[in-house]
Amino acid sequence: MSATSSVLPLPAGRVPLTLRVFAALDRKAWTALAVFLALALVVVPVLNLALPPESVFHVSAYAITLIGKIMCYALVAVAMDLIWGYGGILSLGHGLFFALGGYAFGMYLMRQIGRDGSYGADLPDFMVFLDWKELPWFWLGSDSFGWAAFLVVALPAVVAFVFGYFAFRSRIKGVYFSIITQALTYAAMLLFFRNETGFGGNNGFTDFKRVLDVPITAPETRLVLFGLTAIALAATLVFAAWLVKSKFGRVLTAIRDAESRVMFIGYNPLWYKLTIWVISAVLCGIAGALYVPQVGIINPSEMSAANSIEIAIWVAVGGRGTLIGPVIGAFTVNLAKSWFTVSFPEYWLFFLGLLFIVVTLLLPQGLVGLWKKVISKKQGAQA
Amino acid sequence: MKKRLLTFLLWATSLGALAAPDPALVRQLAADDNSDKIAAIQQLTAAAEPGTAKLLQAMADDSLYVAGDKLYVYDGEKTVDALNGETAELPDGAETITVNNRLRGELANALAALKLFDADRAVRLAAARELQSQVGAELAGVLAKARDQEQDAEIKPLLALAHAQATLQDADPAVRLAAVNTLAEAATPAVKSLLLPLTEASGESDAKVRAAASAALKSIERSLAWMDTLAGIFSGLSLGSILLLAALGLAITYGVMGIINMAHGELLMIGAYSAYAMQSLFRAYFPEQVDWYLPAAIPVAFFAAAAVGVLMERTVIRWLYGRTLETLLATWGLSLILIQAARVLFGAQNVEVANPSWMSGGVELLPNLILPWNRVIIIGFALFVLFLVWVLMNKTRLGMFVRAVTQNRAMAGCVGVPTARIDTMAFALGAGIAGLGGVALSQISNVGPDMGQGYIVDSFMVVVVGGVGQLAGAVWAALGLGIFSKLLEGWAGAVIAKIMILVAIIIFIQKRPQGIFALKGRFADQ
Questions:
Q1: B434-460, pLDDT tens digit by residue?
Q2: Do B495 and A191 touch (CB under 8 A)?
Q3: Of B25, B71, B95, B263, whose CB has the highest number of CB atoms within 10 Å?
Q4: ipTM of this model?
């Protein structure tokens, strides 16, 4: 189940990694990626900064935040696709990893507020409100960007590793796994809702002022974050394309299709599943860290069961088992959501619910599958 | 001390006096100083003459007026001279006696004490109950008098307790010792905090009383711990029965048929809204029989939820048999649609579903251990539904077919079981049971469009822990989870308890992925 049809020919024998990564995408895909990056890094900033707001081609700050947010979601969707589309493991707890990354980076952003909070204290406002006198131990080092960046990766990785190790070792799979991941994120949500946990209770983190000492709401900061998200998404796609074509990816797909047979051949599925599970969680954490400064808030509702299931529907709508599918799905569903919640707020849930049903009943391969079917029919008609 | 002596003297003299409140004391009620007023109230209470209650009640109601050295009770229609009880005219410039909060508390106590002499047993009992906390030493006399007069077996011990509390600070160690010994028989948290200071030298000078207090405290703590555990087990049973009602339907649809129905919580919601609809119907058309809306709601909820279940099965789930992950997503979509539909039909706000009058109140098992009727009835209801399901699954033809399809779909089809129709009926049954659960939930929790979402994780946990394909597993898991969470809640708080339970379940599934009760044999490995 490869995303592309024609692959550059590789020389025989041992191939350098760079070349193998280069070979992960075909020429068309590399071109599309270059166009995407050029748009995100050059065209959008120019249209936003250089053009006056009256211009037809002006890209508004709202649009940049929205697209930036959706790119974060697309990153999560790709991460979800790696584990679900290629690994056959449906996680209903990916919202947890997204939120963990967001909270890890949010701690740094809270510390960057400094004394500009409404209480003018060194501690974040919610701690003053709780009458805490000093930072809890787990906030240690949260004023350092490097430590925050480390946590963004390490926290989801550790949680995913510990949980995944025990789950996969006991050979929990299918819906059982889905349900306990849901229980996991639900438990975490309850934990983060408590004020005493030390992450701002149900308000979470908000009112950020600066990132790396630069004002966070400045147009330039916004564009830098936007560009970084685009780069992260592009890099993830290249990495994922390489990964699923590597031997590791092949074994993973084999485990998805016939786990027992793979085991009998002599592979241990545990490590393959665990690796992809941790990679997927880390990607979610990075997406969360990019999401928080752009959207300006992180709270425990990100860990609700509903949010995690929505991730699955992005992937399903786009087409799982393909890499471009989740991106398409994330954009389609979230743009529809933005449009619905503004124009017909009361119909959004009907639409989303129908989407879940229609996609599972009629479009098992998603939009990408539909497109492929249309193309092959056309070609069949021509031949 | 002097004041107490004075009280005693006044009390002693008033015993011999005519049966009417002492005029001097009545006048003192209008004194400028609040302490004087309180002293007067206490002395009047201690005397407990007929008419005192009326007078103090008037004072508490702000209808006691003072003009010069005369006091009047004016109840809005006629005026009575408070000193001699004769009808009088309310003079111009008469003012009510100011009653602040401190006085109000004093008056409430005094009035309760006076009610101890009422002819009506119920009034006396209520008054004795009211005097179980915060009894001051000033009431000791009147309590002793009431206790000695009292014949009723239920009221007498209550009065003895109140009297013991009032004499706990008495000057005579023998009296204090008697008080401690009396209190030792009552195991309430209030008595515990009363006795606590007496176990230390600073709070009690007499060694004998101290020893008695320590012994009493120990026995009280023991029985309190017992009662806490009992109360915990009861609320655990109650929670367990709710979980059971929520999970029984799921045990059929998921456990037996292998369908992950994420819209199960919304079927509970449909049941709860059925109860709401029946309540509105009864209020509008049969206001006399409004209490009967609940029994009427039971079949309505069952069939409403079952109808929605049939619709779901026929339109969506039918096409997804064997593809559990897809079923999960599709039924999630269904749940979103049902939630939004409820919002459109009934509004986004929670609706109010009242307990019928026969479900309010409770049965008092022990003093301090009251089982609310609604909880008791829900436990009974859960047992009834469980019995119903058991009969259906084990004693009817439908149940036999369902079990057959569960065990071997192809073979069941071969011997003529209409598998497709059985699927629909079993799903409808599971949905209908969820509807029944919803009726029970409407009696104890909020009824709103989102209410089902809170139960979906819990009910899946019950089914997963219990073991797939087993009704008995669901029962034990529901009760076990209910009791465990309530006992944990006792010392860790609700949220931490919930998290601990979820983590425990996650660990449990690692150890026993097949649940407590696993299917054995060739069907176990699916």
A1: 999 999 888 888 899 988 887 877 887
A2: yes
A3: B263
A4: 0.86
